[in-house]
Amino acid sequence: MNKAPYRCGVVAVAGRPNVGKSCLMNRLLEYKVSIVSDKPQTTRNSIRCIYTGEDFQAVFLDTPGIHLPKHKLGRALMESATKALNEADLVCYVVEMGDGVITSEDEEVMRLLGEAGAPVLLVMNKADLAKRTDAERTRMLYGGKIPLLGAIPVSARTGEGLDALLAAVRDALPAGEAVYDDEMIVDRPEKFIVAEILREKVLLLSHQEVPHNVAVEIEEYKSPDEYPERTALFVRATLYVEREGQKRILIGREGARLKEIGRLARLDVEALTGHKAFLDLWVKVRPGWRESESDLRLFGIKERTS
Ligand SMILES: Nc1nc2c(ncn2[C@@H]2O[C@H](COP(=O)(O)OP(=O)(O)OP(=O)(O)O)[C@@H](O)[C@H]2O)c(=O)[nH]1
Ligand SMILES: [Mg+2]
Fold it and tell me: pLDDT grade, residue 169 (50/70/90)?
């Protein structure tokens, strides 16, 4: 009997904001590749997360949630998501399994999926919150709108359904050699993930418009991996906000909020890097950065080449 060919391809993980795309990536890779929060528009870059199985390699692209943008930041997020869809051999379209209706954002996702043309696997996430009967109802709801390769109930929280998802992804990939080394999990440098962890803690500890107004820049990054004379990782980072009031909120009374952001981030950074870490955090006002092309490039949200 012939051995099945090795398979490899790009799998865009797309859907409206907050359905659990990044959470799903972290769970599949058993590694914190992408930050998660209960606020929409958490993810700002398409992040390549590489899953290497026995006989396949799936290059997942975690994408920013598809929504109707209100400013340049939002438009840059949409460009990044659309680019990922156009590059994909397969799309995992993530929805919430309990979804009873199709929202305008999901209409937009389906329009973009139609334009991109890659086959679509419906991933019905948050099965832990839904009723068993929701699976069939959700499959019918979306299946009535677009052609689906399949529909799989999963829970990024409990891990339910992930083996079935990986099997379906594998079967849909084209034959091909692995593109990445099998030890590679994420295509972004450690420094990028540390900046994202800081943003995650801002999202966790702030509310209303503040979280969406924050961008993180790492000004200095000295790891014992590169500087053996050091025993701890040193990170100096600036959190940019758009207004003075937001700066006050982020710093908090007597610096309490900024301190807590630093403490929580430090724990994650230490777990990620395996080094003791020292984070030196600053908050600065940069009016209108979300509407500035050059700032979006500076913060790595918009690609420098595009
Ligand atoms: N109960 C439950 N909650 C989940 C599950 N998956 C994700 N969540 C929660 O849903 C929220 C959104 O998760 P994210 O992974 O940040 O969602 P996202 O789709 O990446 O969002 P954007 O990056 O904004 O597009 C978080 O509060 C998660 O903890 C799940 O399977 N079950
Ligand atoms: Mg995300």
Answer: very high
